[in-house]
């Protein structure tokens, strides 16, 4: 998966910022926005949505759901922006596994500072080493492998 150009990163950061600004997080006050790029190049924004019983939806899960609903099954890059300048916002553990379902270990995750500047580029393998993905199920002959491409 190739790196984003500076122009692409700027455009995607604006999309992620807008999503973050639309986040619904009255309980944590921790708005997160993402811009997920599918293999086709289409961009899916996502924002976290919290509800009173605390089982909300993360921004990454929101964008992945939109992508899957549109019939796409592969992520090529994701930009994540949170609410702080003190620490970078990276996907939570659950979302790292969700990303792994639709991307290989080389997926680039761009963590942005609150003000939109690039903080760090991680790979999915950096954030989820020794991950378990769809191809692990294919190795033993089980699992839903229809319509899946083999990933590295």
The assigned CATH architecture is 3-Layer(aba) Sandwich
Instruction: Kindly report the spatial arrangement of strands forming the biggest sheet.
Output: 2-1-3-4-5
Report the β-strand fraction as a percent range: 15-25%
Largest sheet: 5 strands, mixed
Structural class: alpha+beta
Shape: globular
For the record, the count of structural domains works out to 1
Count of alpha/pi helices: 5
**CATH level 1 class label:** Alpha Beta
CATH 4th-level superfamily: Cytidine Deaminase, domain 2
Mean pLDDT metric: 92
- H/E series, N to C? HEEHEHEEHH
Radius of gyration: 15 Å
Catalogue the unreliable spans. none
Gap from first CA to last CA: 11 Å
- Strands, count: 5
Fraction of residues in H or I helices: 25-40%
Q: What's the CATH topology label?
A: Cytidine Deaminase, domain 2
How would you characterize this protein structure?
This protein has one domain: 3-Layer(aba) Sandwich (Cytidine Deaminase, domain 2). 31% of the residues lie in helices and 19% in strands. The chain contains five helices and five strands, in the order αββαβαββαα. A five-stranded mixed beta sheet has the order 2-1-3-4-5, with helices on both faces. It starts with 5 loop residues before the first helix and ends in a 13-residue tail after the last helix.
């Amino acid at each position: 998966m190739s790196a984003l150009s500076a122009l692409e990163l700027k455009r995607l950061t604006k999309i992620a910022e807008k999503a973050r600004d639309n986040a619904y997080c009255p309980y944590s006050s921790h708005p997160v926005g993402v811009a997920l790029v599918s293999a086709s190049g289409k961009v899916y924004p996502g924002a976290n949505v919290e509800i009173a019983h605390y089982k909300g939806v993360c921004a990454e899960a929101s964008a992945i759901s939109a992508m899957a609903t549109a019939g796409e099954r592969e992520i090529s890059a994701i930009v994540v922006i949170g609410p702080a300048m003190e620490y970078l916002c990276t996907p939570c553990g659950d979302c790292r596994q969700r990303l792994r379902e639709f991307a290989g270990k080389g997926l680039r995750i761009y963590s942005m500072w609150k003000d939109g500047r690039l903080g760090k580029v991680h790979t999915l393998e950096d954030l989820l080493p020794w991950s378990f993905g769809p191809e692990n199920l294919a190795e033993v002959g089980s699992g839903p492998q229809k319509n899946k491409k083999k990933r590295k």
